Amino acid sequence: xxxxxxxxxxxxxxxxxxxxxxxxxxxxxxxxxxxxxxxxxxxxxxxxxxxxxxxxxxxxxxxxxxxxxxxxxxxxxxxxxxxxxxxxxxxxxxxxxxxxxxxxxxxxxxxxxxxxxxxxxxxxxxxxxxxxxxxxxxxxxxxxxxxxxxxxxxxxxxxxxxxxxxxxxxxxxxxxxxxxxxxxxxxxxxxxxxxxxxxxxxxxxxxxxxxxxxxxxxxxxxxxxxxxxxxxxxxxxxxxxxxxxxxxxxxxxxxxxxxxxxxxxxxxxxxxxxxxxxxxxxxxxxxxxxxxxxxxxxxxxxxxxxxxxxxxxxxxxxxxxxxxxxxxxxxxxxxxxxxxxxxxxxxxxxxxxxxxxxxxxxxxxxxxxxxxxxxxxxxxxxxxxxxxxxxxxxxxxxxxxx
Length: 402
Hints:
Number of helices: 9
Order of helices and strands: EEEEEEEEEEEEEHEEEHHHHHHHH
């Protein structure tokens, strides 16, 4: 054991020193003791009083090792409206203690006995935990993956649980077929309160879903549709962020944009049992195979119109703290970030585009990628003038990094 010192240099960043030099390839053990309070807050980190019990969301409260690349440590400050993560995969072994009445959901695989939960999370970028003495648990399977739904009892919990599991199943089926195999044996879905305008939050092997409306006696019927969008989106992050890592602070579009494409441009544009059940709950007759086909046609026509225009789109490959002038950071990452691959899909043709996306996924499977890496794969499959014109409309070469 090497003696270490933790020296605070700010709210988020700390430097760790060892008492001897390490040569390339050498390793050592470091011990860091961290103590933090858990705020009462509707958030990805915080606890809430629900149904005469408590729900603890524990994430962004554990130490992260900064990414070391190109001879320097890449540190980003905490960003409450988004993410600052850029981590390589690691193996985590965690012992978590809670009262026996608590059910514990966590990244990786876990077992609980006498209040002690033992968590093994191999080849993951981080560990997140949600615990509650009011959780109920149900599960389903998709593509050999166990889907565990940790939900809260309410008047609407039966519909919530069924729709959440169905959406996760459909998403796994579609994304596995289109992109590639999910690397882990299970995934946990947890219900809680995440605050205004936050539908969900993603971690490797675990997703948090805001279900504040479902805990009320009455809720808007369109909340069922929002649930399918939230679950599908956060499941999509298992492919882009969880499996293919990227710098979420410097290039937020690379995980949010591609994940938004999976949600809106793949899941939504495929006729599924979950969306059909959602339409039934909403008393809507609009969701039909014919209308899904029509939506695909309209979006393709819109993309072709954009391709044929000389008008330039806004750039998307900017950091969260410096979006292009006049562009909201969220729009840059999510909406414009989705528009870019959606237009590429039409410019390249669907088969060629998904072949490229599958290659990108396999090439950077459990690794970290950049916008330049993504472009290299795209151009490997289609380096035509049309495709490069699309790239030039969305990507600012000044912000490309290796």
